[in-house]
Records
---
Amino acid sequence: MADERTTMDQAIKATTIKTGKYLTFSLEKEEYGIGILKVKEIIGMMPITSVPRTPAFVKGVVNLRGKVIPVLDLRTKFEMEAIAYTERTCIIVVEIDSDAATILLGIVVDSVSEVLNIREEEIEETPKFGTQLKHDYILGMAKRDGGVKILLNIDRVLSGEEITEIEQVS
Amino acid sequence: MVSQEIQGLTEKLACDFMMANPEEPETLSGLLPVLKQIHDRCRKLRLKTEAESIQKARKMINALVSDPGEAETRMTALGDLITALSFSLRELEETGGAAKAPVTEDFSEDPAPQCSDLETIEAGLETFDGLIHSFCPEEIPDLGALHHILDDLIEGSKNDDPPIFHEVALACKHYVESITLENICHTRPIEEGALLLKSILSHRKRGKAFIFDYSDVLDLLNASFETAKTKKSVDSEENIPEPFPPAGPERISTDDMEILADFVAEAFENLETIEIKLIDLEQDPSNKDIINDIFRPFHTIKGVSGFLSLTRINKLAHATENLLDSARSGEFVIDQQATDAVLESVDTLKALIGRVKKGIETGFWQPDEDIDTEILRHKLQRIQAAMTQGEKEPLGQILIRKNAVDQETVEDALETQRACPGKKLGEILVEGRRLDPGQVVSALAEQNAVRNKPEIQVKVSTQKLDDLVDYAGELVIAQAMLRQQTAHDPALNQSVAHLGQIVTNMQNIAMSMRMIPIKATFMKMIRLVRDLSRKVGKDVNLSMSGEDTEIDRNVVDALYEPMVHMIRNSLDHGIEPSGERKAKGKALQGNIHLRAYHKGGHIIIEIEDDGKGLDKERILKKAVSTGLITGHEQMTDARIYDLILEPGFSTAEKITDVSGRGVGMDVVKSGIEKFRGHLNIASQKDRGTKFTISLPLTLAIIDGMLIRVETEKYVIPTTAVQKAFKPGPNDYFTVEGKGEMVKDRGNLIPLIRLSEIFKSGKGKKPVQDCLVVVVESKDEKRALLIDELLGKDEYVIKSLGTGLETIKGIAGGAILSDGRVGLILDIHGIFSIAQEG
């Protein structure tokens, strides 16, 4: 009963949460969006200390004003081809809800584009891609100016457990 | 005068309101006290309309705080109200409102609503309380004021039903009268009275009936004008009905939650102090200071629990307090039986408060009927009754000690006193012009004084402290970077150097705030040994040294459990029964010694017993039988002893309830290792066993060596580093072309390449081009191959962030002087990675 209610709540939350402001960024030729409330700040590229024995998409750690935060490369995570960092390469610092607490994480993206106000009716359900593409972390597709922005549920993309799990496998 | 005050307060109110933000309830509730003050003043001036609108404003604020919906419109309404209020009050000032004022404070005629009635009583009580605490026997005006307030309180409460408040207030008044008439300077009864009044009031405010036993306070108050000062035993409480047990678990309201949480934390702290002090008291049973130190925390627990309607805790603490109070006033000397009873009471209180704590966690009141307090309470009362009565230090003796009078004069005076009984010694001395009244008063004060004022301390959450330490660390780094950039400018350089000094001092203070002496932990062990030695029937003494050694408070928490386990083991398995000891020619009393000292950034805790020592043969046999070892290994003594740290290992033939289930030592080991500590065991047959725990002094900072391996920089904890050298061409050997070793003064040490372990490098560099750092962990040595030694420094350890905390071989991150993150190596982890290949 209680479980049912929580799943209901989550479902309601997931649908209502879609309308709102999104920070969009580009990866290769695709445009992605994250809910603006998840974004703490955007910082330029800074020296990253790589951490051994972690999955490849964990680039390492950086010093964010005295706090050490992990930095992940979204290209590697999405199995895209890695490129050399340019001047436009950014680290988006996001706040992720985990079971216990909120986690700060940096994600490396090619470039940050803009903040968009996206309405519910502009968002389309994620199409089924079959097995070759996991899509449970995609909130939906927003159609804008002839293009498509892929809206990410960043909590799902980068859960803290995932980092640990993969580390244990390796 | 009063209207000017109102003026000032109104201005403050207007200012505060401008700053208030409905999203931050604290800013709003901050307005309440100001409003209350204005309200009081308005009532003094009989400004009914203003007082009413203030009440309205207070209600609005309260509603806003509890439910911040539609904040904007409601804030506007509140703003209008406050503006109107300040306007009418200002007008009052201009038209010379002082003419209306001040009327006598006779509230009973005022047909104000009940709620504000309660407030005036509350205000009266506040003043009353303040007066009592600053009360000084010589000051007549104080007494007058006390009288006055009590009259008001009595008057205000005469129509109450039930008349508890009235009754208590009356008793208080009688007592004040007796203070005035008989020059008593014992203020405890009246303090108790005030506390009781307050708690009655708080119950009434919450609309609950006051159901506690207060007869003893009345007794206390009344006792002073009974000729014989006999303490009635507390037995009337059986007539008072227990509160109805709630049908199901009752929810704890959110208002209570916070107070309860504070109470629980404080009570546990208090109980710990009590335990430590009780042990002290056992050594020195007549020391009043110690009894006082025990009495006070019980008093606090009693007071607060009464306030919070925690009946059972309140009653038990009260009974214990009564017992201690008699001891404190010198009626008897605390003996073993009394100490045991008080300890038992501490344990029961812990259990009860534990339930409250659980209640806070779950949000519902937890039933505690299974914890029996009645038997214990009667026991406490019986002990108190059984103890013979004694006397306080006689006034005459105090006076003689203070050289105010000589022996003869006192004896003369005592003679006179015998002639006309009823007269007090002080009076006789003053009448006979032998003594200045002031001297008598000060001697009287001393006779009843509470010595040993508690230190004033501030509670700060550990999170804030940790943050402060973090930021102090950041400041050091920022300052180092600044220094690099300003090196060329002499003037700037000087300022930066000055800044550097301040920063260093600040960091030291921040660090020291987290350090506490290990004494408290050691003291807890005394209790443990005391209880356990009785249980197992062995005579064991616990001695200690270095208990003032300071240690990070987080590490202290890590120490407690392991120490308990090890002491249990020593007591149960280590120390022999006295018969056996006698046969071996040892002292009959066993001894466990706790020792703490600093050694190279670590705190070392030794637990040494003079028991029979570890039995190597038996450990080996057991290890073979459980399959831990094959029995063919060549093992050093240290390795053999380490076997007892393996899970499920216990050599005790029979399982006792003290120790011996074979869980324990492995828990000890992992507990210590979690805090980057190590455990070593040394033992000698029939001489004893010594456990040595070594823990880092602080979890926040380590001394480290910065090294470079290819492009990566790492920090090695200095404590692990043995030496560094450049290997010559003849110092390098391989086994089967793979296993690499270096020779250091004839010792062969296996070589570890960090670049290989961390898969960061490309290809093997020849050893001759590199440096070798010899590191040690748990008596094992390995050589790390590095490219460069960059320096030695202190590093603030940072977590690498969620998901990255448990990487093998990495203990954490540190921010280097260039602002980048460096990784701190976990040497032990690296060894095990190397072992796995």
---
Amino acid sequence: MVLQLLGINHKTAPVQIREKVSFSDNILSEALLALKTYDSIEENLILSTCNRTEIYAVVKEASKGLRSLKIFISDFHKILQDEIHRYFYFFSGIEVARHLFRVISSLDSQILGETQIFGQVKQAYFKAKECKTIGKNLICLFEEAIKVGKRVRKETNIGEGAVSISSVAVELTKKIFEDLKEKNALIIGAGKVGEITVKNFYSRGINSVFVANRTYEKAETIASKFGGKAIKFEHIFEALSEMDIVISSVSSPHFILSKDQIELIMEKRKFKPLFFIDLGVPRNIDPKINEIRNVYLYDIDDLNLVRDKNIKKRKIEAKKADKILEECVLRYAKKNNCWCQGK
Amino acid sequence: MSIPISQKYKSMLMYNFFFNLTSFFYLLSFLFYIVSFIKQKDKIRILGFFINLIGFFTHSFNLILRTIILEILPISNLYESLILFSWLIMLIKILILDRKKFQFSGFFVFPVVLFLIFFASNLDSDIKPPLPMLKSHWLGIHGLLCFLSYSLFTISFIFAILYLLQERELKYKRIGIFFFQLPSLELLDRISYKTILFGFLFLTLGIFSGSIWAKEVWGNYWRQDPKLILSLIMWLFYLFYLCTRLFLGWQAEERAYLSLGGFLITLFTYLGTDYFLKGLHSYL
């Protein structure tokens, strides 16, 4: 008996291939049961997310098993064997365990340290259990993997530090203000990025959200989602004295806020700190306002800078995680050496 | 009850041993904190914290031992006051500043404490009976209150510096070690303010207790003495600081500079009367 894995992910294949071979929730049971009937397949499990599709199997005979896995994919998704050869990777024996441990710890993810994958692996495992396509070998492997995933999260900071633009904006805000509960945010522009950022602030318990947009109705729609208030675009200037955080993402050929304006506002608010996040390209806010006392302005490049630093830190954590993984793989190999020798 | 001389001598040896032990543990703990600060590793920091606790324990033991031998709070000379001063700063660090939300700020107390201890180690540590005039419970109350206020002002000073550093990093987008290891500007300012608020309270009580004591021994509440005048200046300065926040609406940055100024006055009040303006309060 041999443990095998045939898979595809964001590193080996472009999205147009990945989408062809993914298994959506509604066909997953059918696929699991279908694969079970193939030659030499003893146990099988399918993990399918937007970035990867992986089939884990315990097969009676190595060469027959691999052939079955390939035929299954080409049968089920109607793709050529040629494409499978080009885009899929194949592991067997202990390498399968090593790969799974990496996946569940999100070391193999596109965004290092993201948390979703842990739940996705668990879901795939439960689904296979439900369909009774896995036996004691894969159960043992996946139970171990879940433990490994938990341990890596606990012992490293791989998930720490914001790595998306909107969460970086929140992280920066938390370096200036302690309590978001007492702060007001104004969002200028009802675009997608702006909305995600507001959502992030909202979930961190910001006191209130104001939305300004050239089309007032759109501002109202977004404001209502976050229990906020819509204001007219012309009234931005008056509203500023009540705000602590201003996020702007409009497409405008010229600056919508100038240094003189902000100087006036700051005097009015006795130089109480005001944090601007300019997500617009071209920039919406005159960069010179950063010179004003207690005004902090971050544009999209500044946010990217913070994000890159956080990614770098995650990479260092990933090295720590690798060490933990090696230890787990060794232990796992020792415990199950009778059947996961591979090849 | 007084301890026989021979026994006193033995305690002295033990005393110096514990002083060295305290310095050693603080220094070791400081090194652990530095490594953890640069490498950003929490485990090393926790280890540093435990070593710090051991150091604080020997430090406390030191203070208690000396108090038992002298039968009053050991504060009658510069050496003793430095030990108490550094102990109070450490106490505040361990009780308050090591909480998670303050992130790494507690670490910055070390340079000050180590400096005080280093300073003390160069002074005469012999236990001498204090002047009979000082043998009063008022000495303990008055001294403790005043040094509590000095300690709080010192911590305010440290947080003011941290505020200014973090402010520069955020303003000029130098996303470095401070960015990741220090709490928000608002929190740094809040701590700097609150330590002054409480420090001012203790200073007020300290001055009051001193004048009651003065009435008992000198017959009047006030005497022309450099330390008294400096304390009054210090008291007025911190009163002004509090007003800028409560009534004048000054912002954090200006307050941070005020806190730096206040610390200089505190230092001068503490040491100036020994080195420049001799008076009734001189230690040396």
